[in-house]
Amino acid sequence: MNISYELLQYYQYKKVIKKKDAEDILAESGKLNTSVRDYMHVKEYTTEVSELEALSEYYNMPCVEVDMLEIEKELFNKLSFEYMKKNKVIPVTITKTGTLLVAIGKPLDVNAVSALAMIHPGPVDFILAPQTQIDRYIDSISAVMSTSQALHDLNSEKDKQIFDDNVNVDAYQGSDDDVINNPSVRLVDSVIKEAIPYRASDIHVEPFEKKVRVRYRIDGDLQERASFPIDSYPAICARLKIMSGMDIAEHRIPQDGRINMMIGGKEYDFRVSSLPTIFGEKFVIRILDKTSFHFDRTDLGFTDSENDVIDKMLARPHGIILLTGPTGCGKSTTLYSFLKEISNPTVNIITVEDPVEYTMVGINQTQVNTKANMTFAAALRSILRQDPDVIMIGEIRDEETAEIAVRAAITGHLVFSTLHTNDAPGAILRLEDMGVPSYLVNDALAGVIAQRLVKRLCPACKKRGKTNAQEMQVLGITEPITIARPQGCQFCNNTGYKGRAAVHEIMYMNDSIKNGSGERTLEALRQKASENGMISLWESCRSLVLKGVTSIQELESLSVE
After folding, report:
1. How far is it, in rounded angstroms, from Cα 110 to Cα 415?
2. How confident is the model at residue 522 (pLDDT cuts 50, 70, 90)?
3. How far apart are CA 471 and CA 355, in angstroms?
């Protein structure tokens, strides 16, 4: 029997896919000359994690996600990174009985299985793991080792070379072997590439009196990853400036630049910012994945009841839908998911952003350029002459942009934008503070979504236990319940957390809120919104604590905002 057909039959039996989809999957994957599994992943019938248990039973092999494994990195000396990446294998451990345990992503690869049997004199056992997780883990270990080696080489050379402000530019640009093998070049490349498997959102390169510190922002927190001698820093600065297109001779004023790199087959955009400090220029590098945007509302953590409210907002023919929250809370990502959802050939969608973070097929995206006087307001005035149906404004920053956005909404356009406010009702007062009359806010505003990101507890080490008196008081309960707490392990860098989850506060602008009597204060607006079904950020986070997704400490952090 054909393995693809047999696998599809088994997926139907395990209810991974629906019976009506099986024939289409088999036919389309055959036309495209791709495997059934790859086709299902691309078309989002399944994911590697959702199919793992069924695949494990199909191959009669135990399964695990890579984060749950305790991997002995000394075993990496037995295999090259190229071999492990190509064959999707990770040596995990050698048991007390002498058996080599290997995580494998392609169990039918006979060549890979045979080669592993040759490098280990004893028996070899296999455990099934998702291929992308294997790739990510190998990339992270490879990047860490590359950074460590580059640091070692840089430290070895610091006594041989004298670095000053007159850096030889030719030594840090180009593509010949001498440049590639230069320790400063290798260090900068390794620091950037290492950030990807660590899921970092930003890289901080900070000079101090005697050393330079490198930190990554992971799950919202900065974590130190490396340090190197300050003597070497002019060369590092030169490399970063050349890569990002900055003026290498300018040290007195802040600069902005951009780096594009292919890492692991994906294109990444790195936005680079420099700031002069007393010990040298500090660099912050924001990491953006330029590959196609694939998030939807389910991925972003919206509940069924929240989706019902959002459906009503998106069904409005005109009006403003605002996302509020602090920098880095995922506002733009949520807006992009809405645009992706409503995009179709009959709708003209135009955005104005600073900068364009994701490129989306079928959507006209414009970037702010203040040097050319292309501000949000100027771009918005031009956009209104482009016959738009839907407009997305990266951020409403001033009175002029707010006024144009509101007038666009009341003249028949659906407008998406962001604001920096602490909660959803606060957006109403912020627009009024910007000079928009309250009657225009009432007419234009369709709804507001306040969003925060809270840290997810590490699935490998979180520990469940009964609540104490203080925790019961925070949760507002009178009887003890079981909740999960952070512990810390090798998979979460001993933080107790891995990844983040979104919590939301959604205020739908109905007649009750628009025409509510009484004083127009934040407290009054919150009360009216709650009476009309708005669930607060705190309550949304509390539900995640009760489900064991996040910790009570994250809930308390929302309480003090």
Report:
1. 55
2. confident
3. 42
